[in-house]
Structures are given as C-alpha cells and as structure tokens.
C-alpha cells in the first residue's frame, strides 16, 4: 500500500517535472531580457550537481525588458483586447450553435441524423491550409466580412463546432430524459424545455465546449492575418508572429508574449477546473 | 445565392447585435502599402511615408496607408488578395517570387512604362536585373540583404582574406569539449550554401537551365565537406544556435546577414567583412535577397503609387532607410552620404554586394529550395557522396521543372478552352444530398421537413454555418483534386483544368518504394506507413500516460488542484514556441536532452540523423502536447464510475488489478472512444509538430501525409496534386471512422 503510494507520488513528480521543464525554458527566455534561444552546455569537469544546475533553465539575469519591449513597441494591449472580444464572442456564438444542434441530435430522431454526426467528423479530416482560398472567397468576397471581427467570429465558431457538438451530444445522451418528458406532458414547448431544463443540467459540458471554442479563437493566426487589413484590428497571435521573420526571430519577445497569452487561459482553467473534469466525463459517456 | 447571403449576414448581425463592429470601407484616395517590416525598418518606412503624405501625396491628394503583415502569412495573404483585385496598390516583398508571379499573372504589374532611365540609374546593375523577368521590369529594388563574415574582434582582430586563412583561424578557436567553435553558419540551409554554390557557377545556367550537378556545384559540396572535416563548425546549425554561440563568445566567426546585428549582445565587439576568397582566387559569392517595391495590376491609382515608389527609392529616402532603418538601400547614393560612409558595418555589406548574386527570380528556383536542403543534409551527414547527392538533386528537381513547364506549354498552346463536362460540378452537391438522404424514402422528404420542424430549427443554424464555412470549402478542395491546377493556370476556368482521376492514379500507382540507393522517402506508401505508425504510437502513449496520471490523480491528496493545473500547461501555451523549445532540447551538441544523457553516463544521440530517432523527437513533443487532453477525459470518466462497484468487488475479495481489469477499464470504454476517434483524426493531420521539430528529417523520411501534401502544394506549386493527397487522407480517415462506429455498435449490441 505505502509502496504503491510512494510510486504514485514519484510518478506524479516525474511527470510534473517533464511538463514543467520546457515551460520553464519559455519562462526563463521571457525574463532573460535576451532574444536567442538559450544553449545548454555543461562546463568540463563539473560535479554532478554543478552539471545539473547548468541544465536548469534559469536566466543569467532577470529582466523585464522583453515584456516592456513587447508592450511598447506594438499596440499589444489593443490586440489583446481584440483577441478577448473575438474569443468571447466566438465562445458565445459557438456554444449556442453547438448546444442547440447537439440537443437535437441527442433528443430528436430525424433523417440525416447519423450521417450528420459522421459529417461533423469528416470536417476535421481535411487540412485547413487547402481551405484557405475558398474561405477567403466566401468571407471576404461574398459575405463582405473581410476586415471585420464578425468574419473571424463566424469562421472560428463554426470551426470549433464539430468537437463541441460531439462533446455536448454525448453529454445530453447521458442525461435522463424523464424530467423533459414530464415537462412535455405538461405542455412545455421543446424550446422551453431546452432552455429551462436541458441547458442548466449541461453546465459542466458547456464549460468544456466554451473553453475549447475560446482556445480555437485565441490561438488562431493565419486566418486572422489574412482577413484583417488594419493593424488596429489584428489579434494577439498575429502580433506575436511579427517576431518571427524570414531570416531571424526575436525569441525573447515571442516567449514573453506567449507567457502573457497563456495567462488568461490558465485563469480560465482555474475557474473551470471543477466543471472541466465532470464535464468531459459525462460528455464522453456515449459519444 | 443572394438570399442566403443576406440571411446569413442578418443572422450574424443579429447574433452579435452590433453593426458597429463592422469597420468602414477604404476611401478612394488612399494608396495602400503592404510590407513585413518591424522594429527600426518599420520606423524608418513610416517616417518616409509621413514625409510623402505631407509633400508629394499632399499635392496630388493621396494618402498612404501602410499595413504590416507577419512574414509567416504574408505570401498567403498576397496570393489570396492580389489575384482577386483586393490587395494593396503597392507592396514590398523579396524579389525571388517575381518569376512565379509574372507567369501566373494578375499578381504583379510590369512597370517598364513608368520607369525612366534616370530612375533606373539609381541602382547597381545586378539589383536592376533582379527585378526583371523575361525582358520586363516588375518593380524597383528597395533594400538588399546578403550574408557576410561577422567576427568577434576580441578573438579575431583582422578578418581572414582567404578561405584557407579562415579555416586555419577557425581551427585555432575551436575547443569542442568546451563548446567553442571557430566558425558557425547554417550550412545546411540552401540560402547560406549559395556562397559556395555560386562560386562554382550557380544553380542555373545563363539560359535558365538547372545545373546543380555541374562540376562546380559538386565541387561546392566537396568544399563544404572539407570545411566540416576541420571540426571547427558545430553540428545541426540553426539560426538560434548561430546567434546564441556568437553572443556567448563561443563562435569566433559566423556567416550571417544584417538581420543578426540587432540580436548581437552589446558586450560583444564585432566587425563585418566580405566573405574571403577561395583557394583558386575566386570570391565566395553569397546570394542576395532584394526587397522590391511592386505594383498591383489591380491598383486604381497606379500613377500615385508609382510616385511613392520613386519617392521611396530617392537618395533622401535611402539615407533614412540606412540610418534610422539600419537597412542596406538599393539606391547606391545611400553609401556616399558621410553618415553611412562612417558606418563600417554598412560599408562592409555594401562591398559584399559586389561579389554577391541576386537569388535567381525564376519560378523554377522555388522548386529547388527543399530538395537542395535535403541534398545538403545528406552530404553533410555522409549518407550520400557529393556526386550522388548532386545527381539525385538534379534528376528530382528537373522532373518537377519539366512537369511545370509542360503545363505552361499546354497553357500557351491552348487557343480555345475546350468545352468541359459540367457534371463534375453537380456531382458534389448531388453526392452530398444523396449521402444525407439515402435510407429515407424520397416521397417523405416534404412531409419529413414538416414533421421534423423542431429538429430542423435546432440544427438549422449550425448546419447552415457548417455548409457555408466548412463543406463548401471542403467541396472546393475535393473538386480541385480532379484537376491539374498549379500556380500557373489557377486563373483559367476550372473546366479547362479538368484532369479526372489522373492525380489519384499518379499517387496510388507509384509502387516504386525502393530504388538502388534505398527507400524512396517521397513515395506515398512509405509516407502512409510512417503516418500510421506516427498515429498509433502517439495514441498509445497519450492514452497510457493519460490513464496513468488520471488514476494517480483520482484520489485526493494535498496540492492535487495545483498539479492538475500544472499538467494542463502544455495545452495553454502556444504550441508554436513549445515545439521549437523541444527542437532546441533535442539539439545533438547543445540540447538539454543529450546533456542529461551524457550526465547519466550515456553517449549523445544524433537525434535528427536516423529515421527512428527523428521519429521519436516528433512523438515525444506531440505526446507532451497531447496527453493533458487525454488525462482530463479519463479523469472525468473515472468519476462517472459509481464507487459502490469497487466496494462490492472488495467484499468479494477482488485484487486491485482485478478491479482495474473488470471495473475500471470496461467502464472507461465509452468515455475513451470518442476521445480516441477525435485524437486519431487530429494526430493523423498534426502538421505543426512535424513541421517545427523534425521537419521530416532525415531527408523527408519522417514526413506524414499532411506535411507531404503541404510541400507538394506550396513548395512545388502543384495545388491539385496536394489536394488529391489530402482527399486520400480524408478517405482513409473516413474509412477508419466508419469502421470504428461499426465495431462500437457491434460490441454494444453484443452486450
């Protein structure tokens, strides 16, 4: 028993170390004030512990220069705000669409239902790079939504849909139908049942899909930079890529930006952690 | 579909409830300029534009609106916008795309009518030539860049005059045990190999024929091998490694361009000199990249845009670019201003230009980069002799060139496009409808819609969104795979490009997996095998790790919430940087992983040299990125298992292992399955990790189908072929998904 507990603790410790090691490289690069990815070299004749110290990613000196540069050289705050608005709107639109579609796929029997579910999977199977030009044609030329937040929000919320619908549909499947049937007997409309009964019960799964939609919009780079024609409308991932050019890259700025960009996501994780665990479980029960 | 469009617009607006989110359209008197500058160069450009707006622009009633675009998406943005008349009036881009753009049409405008002889006098002849293609001038040169020798003055007081001196000096400053090297540069990058290659006659002959197997080109490979044999150069050189070594005083000399200067540590006293002479007295002749100013053929204000081009290449502007922007202006006058003449660095790069050669701007050049990189890696690693590598390079690239030329030829011969079958167009929606409706009686469709009105209203918005923004582009991609579309005929009507199943036949019937020198890594079936192995290994490892961690985390302990958040971090940080950090960790000489291995008494591993080791660099990175998702899914699954099941089992005396086998695993099945299906699909198409970490090393052996499709599409311009590749990926995954659903249903039915 105790041996097992020790092993468990050791396993967790080792995994945390493996996860943290590259993350620490990013953090130390961000706070190093320098720009080049650090090198590791153990000095000759070093003792075991000196060698170990050399392998720990700690910067030579701590500096906030990269963060200062990042926030002053470019309108980073503005881009952060754009990203927050787009990601938040994507989350709302995406979750609304996914909830209603998933509810119908779970509760109603209609032609094309099974194949619809399969088509959702199919949509994940084709590489996004080849859909760039047609998407440009649709969003910018046909819908005239180029250079608007709306265009990006539309694309992102739809891109996140397949995963969200699958997750939520599974969750609705696992919820007992008794309450809804009783409500139906008492004359409640399907829409009212969906809003008043099913949605509140599905909160945990909604938290997961919300997080997924948020991340989809939060990290997307290529479409954001192709659709937007004004620097003031760029999102954070676009701003970050400025530090990587054809011949060289300012990895210090990039790392500092990555740390900043990860913070909202980590905070969101912290808030949703409780929901997240039970949400994923129930959502995946039947799939 | 005007009605649908309107409906969508209204629906989208309603959803957001704010028309204020729409940005206003551009006004008519704006000149739009796109560029990829940042930092000092951007500041200089913006100063100049301000000056222009206040003077020339003010007088003619034009305002320049600049837009900076990240380099990584710049080319994509241009090729999406320009052919559709939506791009800028004017843009700044490297000159080596001119050939491809000129041949494909609708992207850049010839400017012979605008450019007067007096204006052209501003530039040295090679830079003027760089902007010309097939006798036409396509823009003016703005700035140029080439590599030169950058040396640490504390270690190297005087730059070497000859290559022999350089190597002797480098050897003296090399101490591999301490991680010191005399000379560092990215010798496996084609751009840096240019210095040797051009000294041996260049990649293309004067009349544009490929000659990478000429005696000069083979000699360049031999010279590179001789340089490496001195041991004075580090292995696996990347730009981060080169600048890192130089900044730590561990590289006495580097061959690099002006872009490195801003990254040099202020404590390093450096100098710049032109590259030395080879032993035969010929100069090393690096490639120069010229940033040109290009006009869009769709510009509504070409006159005003040209006025801006003339302004930006004026002497006054050149001085500003040289001083504030720290650039090397194409206008020679820049280098006669005293401010610039007193700058030895700028003058050294200017002197290097005399022996540098602009990168050939032929469309064929783009086909050469990746194969040349492979040839360089093979030569350097010794898996091929210079002769073999050069022969294979010549044969492979020549074949791609012939394919493109044949098509160009066909395009020019085609007088009237033949009437093409219309049915392929109809096939897509028909197939989609058939797919949706088989299994139901047709007569019931109308009644069905009525009957399922509630369901339709619930699914409708999502379905319409998916149809317009996912399935339409997907159908376009599928359609493309039945054509022979390349960069050159993209603008011709689709019917004239119809090629039926040719692409599929070409991919699937190529059974030549082996040839005399081993496995042909660019064969479809090899890549398919690697992709399947990649998916299976990743899936197995993420599920195992996720399961182990979920079980370990399932029981409460102090700090569990914190551990859970820490373990989720790989998901939260942009994977672009973490993947590159992993690539750094795998570096054979300076990576932490090999240092750990040595510390524990092992031998360093050459991670990117063998198929297996390189395969695992990708796998380790991807598992690191992917296990948090699996862990969360399983952790959640564990919580749905009622604890009384375990209690009952314990009462009956079941061991822990039996409980795990009999209760945990079967109860987890329904949780895991959807996650596994999604995971298989995502891993199969995991582009970033492969591209950023191993980049298919060695020699493309570890490319998966999606990265291969990307290379064919965007490095060889064969869009249709890439599309067919992707379609095959889709069909394989579809088959898998159907099989998985069947199996699940059967096992469920069996219970």
Automatic annotation (TrEMBL), chain A:
Part of the ABC transporter complex MalEFGK involved in maltose/maltodextrin import. Probably responsible for the translocation of the substrate across the membrane. CDD domains: TM_PBP2. The chain crosses the membrane at residues 7-31, 79-105, 117-143, 149-168, 248-272. The keyword Transport applies. It is a multi-pass membrane protein. PROSITE patterns: ABC_TM1. Belongs to the binding-protein-dependent transport system permease family. MalFG subfamily. It is found in: Cell membrane. It comes from Biformimicrobium ophioploci. This is Maltose/maltodextrin transport system permease protein MalG. PANTHER family: MALTOSE TRANSPORT SYSTEM PERMEASE-RELATED, MALTOSE_MALTODEXTRIN TRANSPORT SYSTEM PERMEASE PROTEIN MALG. Keywords: Cell membrane, Membrane, Sugar transport, Transmembrane, Transmembrane helix, Transport. The keyword Cell wall biogenesis/degradation does not apply. Residues 80-272 form the ABC transmembrane type-1 domain.
From TrEMBL, chain B:
It is a multi-pass membrane protein. It is found in: Cell membrane. SUPFAM superfamilies: MetI-like (SSF161098), Periplasmic binding protein-like II (SSF53850). It comes from the Bacteria. Residues 1-28 form the signal peptide. The keyword Cell membrane does not apply. Residues 528-740 form the ABC transmembrane type-1 domain. PANTHER family: MALTOSE-BINDING PERIPLASMIC PROTEIN, MALTOSE_MALTODEXTRIN-BINDING PERIPLASMIC PROTEIN. Belongs to the bacterial solute-binding protein 1 family. This is Maltodextrin-binding protein. It comes from Biformimicrobium ophioploci.
């Amino acid at each position: 028993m105790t041996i097992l507990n020790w092993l468990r603790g050791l396993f967790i410790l080792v995994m945390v170390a493996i996860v943290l090691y590259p993350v620490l490289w990013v953090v130390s690069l961000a706070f190093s004030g320098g720009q080049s990815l650090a090198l590791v070299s153990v000095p000759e004749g070093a003792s075991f512990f000196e060698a170990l110290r050399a392998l720990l990613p700690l910067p030579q000196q701590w500096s906030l220069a990269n963060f200062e540069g990042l926030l002053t050289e470019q309108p980073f705050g503005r881009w952060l705000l754009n990203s927050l608005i787009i990601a938040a709107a994507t989350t709302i639109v995406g979750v609304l669409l996914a909830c209603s579609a998933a509810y119908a796929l779970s509760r109603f029997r209609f032609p094309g239902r099974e194949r619809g579910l399969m088509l959702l999977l199919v949509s994940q199977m084709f590489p996004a790079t080849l859909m760039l030009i047609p998407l440009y044609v649709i969003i910018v030329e046909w819908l005239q939504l180029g250079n608007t937040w709306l265009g990006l929000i539309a694309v992102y919320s739809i891109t996140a849909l397949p995963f969200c619908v699958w997750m939520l549909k599974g969750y609705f499947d696992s919820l007992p139908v008794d309450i809804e049937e009783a409500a139906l007997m008492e004359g409640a409309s399907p829409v009212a049942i969906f809003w008043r009964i099913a949605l509140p019960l599905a909160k945990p799964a909604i938290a997961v899909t919300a997080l997924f939609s948020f991340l989809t919009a939060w990290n997307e780079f290529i479409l954001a930079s192709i659709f937007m024609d004004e620097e003031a409308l760029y999102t954070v991932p676009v701003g970050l890529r400025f530090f990587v050019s054809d011949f060289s890259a300012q990895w210090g700025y990039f790392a500092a930006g990555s740390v900043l960009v990860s913070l909202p996501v980590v905070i969101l994780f912290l808030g949703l952690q409780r929901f997240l665990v039970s949400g994923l479980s129930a959502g995946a029960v039947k799939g | 579909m005007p009605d649908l469009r309107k409906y969508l617009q209204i629906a989208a607006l309603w959803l957001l409830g704010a028309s204020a989110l729409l940005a206003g359209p551009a006004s008519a008197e704006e000149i739009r300029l796109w560029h990829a500058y940042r930092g000092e160069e951007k500041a200089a450009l913006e100063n100049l534009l301000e000056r222009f707006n206040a003077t020339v622009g003010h007088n003619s009633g034009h305002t320049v609106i600049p837009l900076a675009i990240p380099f990584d998406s710049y080319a994509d943005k241009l090729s999406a916008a320009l052919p559709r008349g939506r791009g800028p009036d004017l843009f700044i881009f490297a000159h080596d795309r001119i050939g491809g753009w000129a041949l494909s049409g609708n992207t850049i405008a010839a400017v012979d009518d605008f450019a007067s002889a007096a204006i052209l006098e501003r530039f040295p002849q090679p830079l003027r030539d760089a902007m010309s293609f097939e006798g036409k001038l396509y823009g003016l040169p703005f700035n140029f860049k080439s590599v030169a020798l950058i040396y640490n003055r504390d270690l190297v007081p005087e730059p070497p005059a000859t290559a022999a001196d350089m190597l002797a000096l480098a050897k003296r400053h090399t101490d591999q045990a301490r991680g010191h090297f005399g000379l560092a540069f990215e010798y496996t990058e084609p751009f840096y190999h240019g210095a040797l290659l051009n000294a041996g006659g260049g990649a293309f002959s004067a009349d544009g024929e490929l000659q990478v197997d000429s005696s000069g080109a083979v000699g360049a490979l031999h010279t590179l091998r001789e340089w490496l044999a001195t041991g004075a150069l580090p292995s696996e050189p990347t730009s981060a490694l080169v600048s890192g070594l130089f900044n730590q005083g561990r590289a006495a000399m580097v061959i690099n361009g002006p872009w490195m200067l801003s990254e040099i540590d202020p404590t390093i006293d450096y100098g710049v000199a032109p590259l030395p002479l080879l032993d035969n007295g010929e100069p090393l002749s690096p490639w120069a990249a010229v940033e040109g100013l290009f006009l869009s053929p769709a510009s509504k204000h070409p006159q005003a845009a040209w006025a801006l081009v003339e302004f930006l290449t004026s002497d006054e502007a050149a001085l500003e670019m040289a001083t504030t922007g720290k650039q090397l202006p194409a206008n020679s006058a820049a280098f006669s201003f005293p401010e610039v003449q007193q700058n030895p660095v700028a003058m050294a790069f200017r002197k290097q230009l005399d022996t540098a050669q602009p990168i050939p701007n032929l469309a064929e050049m783009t086909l050469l980069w990746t194969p040349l990189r492979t040839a360089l890696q093979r030569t350097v690693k010794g898996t091929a002799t210079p002769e073999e590598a050069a022969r294979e390079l010549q044969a492979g690239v020549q074949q791609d060139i012939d394919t493109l030329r044949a098509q160009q030829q066909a395009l020019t011969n085609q007088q009237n496009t033949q009437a093409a079958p219309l049915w392929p167009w109809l096939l897509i929606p028909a197939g989609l409808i058939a797919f949706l409706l088989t299994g139901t009686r047709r007569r019931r469709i109308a009644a069905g819609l009525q009957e399922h009105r509630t369901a339709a209203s619930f699914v409708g918005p999502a379905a319409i969104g998916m149809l317009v923004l996912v399935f339409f582009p997907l159908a376009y991609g599928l359609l493309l795979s039945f054509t022979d579309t390349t960069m050159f005929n993209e603008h011709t009507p689709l019917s004239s490009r119809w090629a039926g199943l040719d692409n599929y036949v070409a991919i699937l019937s190529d059974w030549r997996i082996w040839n005399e020198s081993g496995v042909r890594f660019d064969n479809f079936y090899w890549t398919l095998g690697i992709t399947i192995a990649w998916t299976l290994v990743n899936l197995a490892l993420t599920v195992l790790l996720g399961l182990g961690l979920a079980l370990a985390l399932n029981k409460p302990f102090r700090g569990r919430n914190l551990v859970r958040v820490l373990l989720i971090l790989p998901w939260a940080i942009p994977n672009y940087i973490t993947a590159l950090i992993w690539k750094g960790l795998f570096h054979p000489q300076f990576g932490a992983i090999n240092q750990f291995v040595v510390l524990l008494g092992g031998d360093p591993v050459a991670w990117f040299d063998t198929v297996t080791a390189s395969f695992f660099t990708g796998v380790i990175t991807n598992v690191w990125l992917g296990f948090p998702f699996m862990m969360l899914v399983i952790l959640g699954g564990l919580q749905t298992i009622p604890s009384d099941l375990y209690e009952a089992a314990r009462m009956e005396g079941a061991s822990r292992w039996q409980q795990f086998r009999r209760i945990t695993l079967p109860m987890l099945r329904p949780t895991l399955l959807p996650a596994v299906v999604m995971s298989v699909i995502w891993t199969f198409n995991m582009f970033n990790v492969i591209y950023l970490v191993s980049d298919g090393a060695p020699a493309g052996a570890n490319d998966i189908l999606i990265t291969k499709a990307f290379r064919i599409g965007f490095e060889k311009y064969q869009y249709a072929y890439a599309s067919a590749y992707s379609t095959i990926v889709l069909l394989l995954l579809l088959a898998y998904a159907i099989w998985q659903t069947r199996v699940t249903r059967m096992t469920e039915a069996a219970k």
